[in-house]
Amino acid sequence: MNETIYNSVLELTGAKSLTKIEEIQSLWSGYGSISRYSLQSASIDSIIIKQIQLNKMKSHPRGWGNQVGHQRKIKSYQVECSWYQDYNQSKDQNFRTAKCYGILGGDPETFILLEDLDAAGYPVRITHPSWASFCACIKWLASFHAHHLQVKPISLWEIGTYWHLQTRPEELKQLKDIPLKKAAYTIDQILNNSTYKTLVHGDAKIANFCFSESCDQVAAVDFQYIGAGCGMKDLAYFTGSCMQEIDAEKKEASILNYYFDCFREESSLDSKEIDFLEKEWRSLYSVAWVDFQRFLKGWCPDHWKINQYSDKLQMELLRRISNQ
User: Distances in Å between the alpha carbon of 112 and those of 104, 106, 140, 226, 311?
Assistant: First the structure.
């Protein structure tokens, strides 16, 4: 970082100096990096800095590098900045996120200064969660969705998630599954026309959750694709990110039941409204799952998440649509 940014970081954190400890990861397609810095003589010992570089189109690891994708990435980082500046809640909420200390720079280089969640008590990362850890993430999603119900996505994505149809025209062109391709717009419309909408995280995979030492508490990161939508988009996507197909099918009822139990605890809706929401959203769980399958089959047709369970949900949904 240049001297101006360096001095601004010191001013925002009250530190006398800072030192880079490690690069945690590079951003997708080479758009920057996320690093941990130690702070000297500050009230906090460390900080996470997300450095975003938008000055040129990067190469995509799966060969999807094009101007459409580049513009989507630019907007995603603008959306993330808006989330942290205008929407991000305090750590007292039941959907823990990182505190944002400030956003520096601009075009073409932006720096988001974030709380170090490892130091805040969420140092564990999990690939294959236990049922208890899985439920901790479901509770986070339900709380997040209940709190943001009917919130308008000003300066966020009008339609949340990175795979929704409007933002993935190239992947739709490449889709070889003709019945699914023909139904793509209908599926998209069903989701977008849900009566109740909330803010969806938009990339709620297991890798974007940080766990406590006991793995029963979580915090979420990466809000590039937050926007309006049915909460089932996050729930279906999260389940598919960390649960094998046999378990996803076997535990489908338990997943939905626990989600709505948690949602009811957090929601301010009256009982009649929440009953209506639950009935509607339950019917959209498989629709959200198949919508993501539509993206996957166009983007990476041999992806491991395309399996017998997702194919079964697709067949059932296409049958329902054809009978309408």
Answer: 7, 10, 23, 16, 40
pLDDT at residue 131, as a whole number: 97
pLDDT at 62 > cutoff 80: no
- pLDDT (mean) for 123-137: 96
Q: Which long-range contacts (CB under 8 A, 24 or more apart) does 88-93 make?
A: 88/223, 89/147, 91/120, 93/143, 93/147
Q: What is the pLDDT of residues 76-102, one digit of tens each?
A: 999 999 999 999 976 667 899 999 999
Return the sign of the alpha-carbon dihedral for residues 322, 158, 31, 123: negative
The whole-number average pLDDT for the span 121-150 is 96
Domain boundaries, the chain: 1-120, 123-324
What's the chain's Rg over C-alpha atoms?
20
| The domain made up of 123-324 is a member of CATH 3.90.1200.10 | yes
Which CATH superfamily does the domain covering 1-120 fall into? Phosphorylase Kinase; domain 1 (3.30.200.20)
Residue 238 near residue 137, CB atoms below 8 Å: yes
How many other C-beta atoms are found inside a 10 Å radius of the C-beta of residue 109? 16
